[in-house]
C-alpha cells in the first residue's frame, strides 16, 4: 500500500509540474543517447574484432616465375600444419578478377594487366591460433624460395585492438560523465519539486507522516525520469539504426562481410534499468541534502 500511494502521489506531482519534468527528461534523453551511441559503436567494433579473430587467415604471395613443383611442395607443407585448416591457390588472373570485382575506386582499372597481381596461396587458420604462432609460421614460410612475401594481417588486428581499448576507455569515461549529469539534473529537479511542495510537506509532517512517506513520491519521480529518459534514448537510437542500417551494412560488409547489429536485449535492458537506478540515486542525494533524510 505504501508503494502504491507513493506512485499515485508521484504521478500527481509530475502532472502538476509537467514543464519541469519535461525539461529534465529532454536533457537526460540527450545524455543517454550520447552514451547509447558510444555503446552501439563499441558493439559493432567488438563484433568486427570477434569476426576477424575467428576467421584468421594469411596470404602467401608467390614469386614470379615460380615452378608448379615448388608451389605444390609449399602447399603440402602448409596442409601438414595443424593450425592451417585450408589452403586455396589464387592465380594472378584470379587475383586481378577478384580485385576488380571487390574494389570500387571510381576509376577504370580494367586495363591493369594480370602481371600487376601476384599469384598467392590463401590460408585459413584454426580459431584460437595465437599471434606468436602466426608469426612463427610467417617466418618459416619466408624461407621457401617460392615465397615472395607473407601477409598475416596481425598489424591490422593489433590496430583494431588498440582502437577497441581506446573506445572502451572513452565509453567508460562517457558513462561516468552521463551518470554524474543524470544525478545532478534529477537532483536539481527534485530540489525544485520539494521547494514547490514545501507547504504540503510541512502539513504531512505536522500530521506525523514518516520520512519514507514524505520522500517516497520524490524517489519514484526520480526513478521514473531516469527510466523514461533511458527508454526514450534507446527507442530513438533504434529508430535511427533502422533508418540508417543500409549504410551501416555497406560499411561493415566492405571491411569484414558483417551486418550491423544493435544493442543486445540484455544490454538495452541494463541500460534502461540503470537509468532508473541513477534517477533514484539522484533523488536520494537531493533529499538527504534538502530534507535531512
Task: Note down, in words, how this protein is organized.
The chain is an alpha+beta fold and 293 residues long. It folds into two domains: 2-52 and 158-290, no CATH class; 57-152, Alpha-Beta Plaits (2-Layer Sandwich). 72% of the residues lie in helices and 8% in strands. The chain has nine helices and four strands, in the order H-H-E-H-E-H-E-H-E-H-H-H-H. It has helices at 2-16, 18-54, 68-79, 92-102, 131-141, 154-196, 198-206, 211-256, 265-290, and strands at residues 57-62, 84-90, 120-125, 147-151. Strands 2-3-1-4 form a four-stranded antiparallel sheet. Helix 2 runs antiparallel to helix 6. The mean pLDDT is 78.
Topology summary:
Layout (H helix, E strand, L loop, with lengths): L1 H15 L1 H37 L2 E6 L5 H12 L4 E7 L1 H11 L17 E6 L5 H11 L5 E5 L2 H43 L1 H9 L4 H46 L8 H26 L3
Helix pairs in contact: 1-2, 1-8, 2-6, 2-8, 6-8, 6-9, 8-9
Return Rg in Å: 30 Å
* Number of H/I helices: 9
Mean pLDDT: 78
**Share of β-strand residues:** 5-15%
Distance between the termini: 21 Å
> How many discrete structural domains?
2
Question: Helical percent range?
Answer: over 70%
Unreliable residue runs? none
Q: How many distinct beta strands?
A: 4
- SSE pattern, N- to C-terminal: HHEHEHEHEHHHH
Q: What strand order characterises the main sheet?
A: 2-3-1-4
Q: Class by helix and strand content?
A: alpha+beta
Give the CA-based shape: rod-shaped
The biggest beta sheet reads: 4 strands, antiparallel
Give a brief outline of the structure.
The chain is built from 9 helices and 4 strands, in the order ααβαβαβαβαααα.
